[in-house]
Design brief:
The protein is an alpha+beta fold and 281 residues long. The chain is built from seven helices and 13 strands. Strand 8 and strand 9 form a beta hairpin.
Length: 281
């Protein structure tokens, strides 16, 4: 599997990057892309959330004046949270939360970092170049990759790609080659052959902000952690793929496509499964 590349944040903010073998994509990145990484990096902070169960860490990305988006599973039931980049810890307050979408927004009057432009997921295509930025093991990390699939959900598209990230990067940013924010790093599935990285679309942020803090019940779960029978269809398909159950995936994708003939991701999944499934005897 790919690995994310840890790097000194001060070095990242002060100079352009070179691509290491671990971060290389299948083709050379377009001219100027690596010059845009430091600008995007300025929008990404580390977040610490303290609750009765201890302290959790993750990442957060600036999405507006004094506003940072992060994954709700990083905050969980925290009573206090702070963000850090290169200096002091700055207290933040929860101002919006959609627990099912796993997208929360916190606020600090002490942050004046300008947000990266937001690009709706509808303007992305498979194989578009993207890069991930977040914190892993207390250090800043990045990786270059490509969009591998986009899955329709709640009026936008959840992004799947191979720009890697690891524990601690949840809530960080996924950016396109122009340095525009396209997603919030959310969850991944790791295996030697089927490593998958997922980000919720950045264009959910305005909707979540407008709705404020949604009620949370004892059984509230992120969409990716719900029981399989109530998860979005693409996550059931992803599980079959992850397990290498190609015949089962083909059968499931066929039903998915029949239920939603206009879903290109269902068609792509069926084609992939049929190509990998065992031939008929």
């Amino acid at each position: 599997m790919k690995r994310v590349v840890p790097v000194s944040l001060s070095a990242l903010l002060s100079c352009a990057l070179t691509v290491s073998p671990a971060a290389a994509v299948d083709t050379a990145p377009p001219p100027g892309l690596l010059d845009r990484v430091p600008a995007a990096a300025r929008t990404v902070f580390q977040i610490y959330a303290r609750s009765d169960r201890g302290t959790s860490t993750g990442s957060a990305v600036v999405v507006g004046p004094g506003l940072l988006a992060t994954s709700c599973h990083v905050l969980n039931d925290a009573s206090r949270a702070v963000v850090v980049q290169t200096g002091e810890a700055l207290p933040v307050t929860l101002v919006a939360a959609d627990w099912r979408r796993d997208l929360c927004v916190v606020q600090s009057d002490q942050i004046d970092t300008r947000a990266a432009p937001l690009l709706p997921a509808s303007q992305l295509r498979k194989d578009d170049l993207v890069f991930s930025l977040g914190f892993t093991g207390g250090r800043f990390a990045y990786d270059l990759g490509r969009v591998k699939q986009l899955y329709a959900m709640d009026g936008s598209r959840v992004l799947r790609g191979n720009a890697a990230f690891a524990a601690g990067a949840s809530g960080g940013g996924l950016f396109d080659e122009e340095g525009r924010l396209v997603g919030i790093l959310t969850f991944y599935k790791l295996s030697p052959d089927h490593t998958m990285f997922f980000a919720v679309p950045a264009d959910w942020v305005p909707e979540v902000l407008a709705a404020g803090i949604q009620p949370r019940t004892a059984d509230s779960q992120p969409f990716w952690a719900e029981r399989s029978e109530i998860r979005p269809p693409f996550l059931q398909a992803v599980q079959y793929e992850y397990e290498g159950r190609w015949d089962a995936l083909a059968q499931y994708a066929q039903g998915w496509l029949e239920r939603d003939p206009s879903a290109p991701e269902a068609r792509d999944t069926l084609e992939q499964a049929l190509a990998r499934a065992a031939p008929a005897p």
